[in-house]
Amino acid sequence: MEYLLVFALGLLFSFIGSIPPGTINLSVLQLGLEQKIRIAMKFTVAAAIIEYPYAWIAVQFEAWITSAPVVLDNFQLITAIVMTVLGILNLWTVSKPTEFYQKFQESGFRRGIVIALLNPLAIPFWIGVTAYLKAQGWLQLSSTGLLHSYIFGISIGTLLLLSLYTFLANKLASMLRHSLWLKRVPGITLLVLGVYAFYIYFT
What's 69's DSSP letter? Predict the structure, then answer.
């Protein structure tokens, strides 16, 4: 029962935490809108796999990282840079797609691995969530089994929400097919979020 509880907590907070727009869910949303379901699902599996080691790092180094605010500040800056660069590249390649970009776009799993690795904001998020759950007395990771049940729940939560994004976007795509502006939406959103993250970091 205890293993099921920590699994459910990881799944629930992962599902909720994946809702706000970010590099991963916007990429999945774009693939769904382009009706590339098979590629989107490979991307989703890759992102869920990368979420596992990131969550493990967050749990293992929770006490040390939360005591060093400069580390969290650097994650914010890295995220700002990644979002801005990906937003610019997305807008550039939509207008002038290169052969490399087209191959990268068609490789859902490798694309998912790369973009998920460039999303280190998952680490401070799981540090915060884990610290909160522990403070409330809801989470006790007193054994290796409980730790991995929690982290596995996190990966499954990510997988479920990204799959939901994929199929909802696919349903919407039939109404907006062949729209160039539709393909630019994820890039514009990433760019706006990147600029906003820079603003937060420097203010």
Answer: H
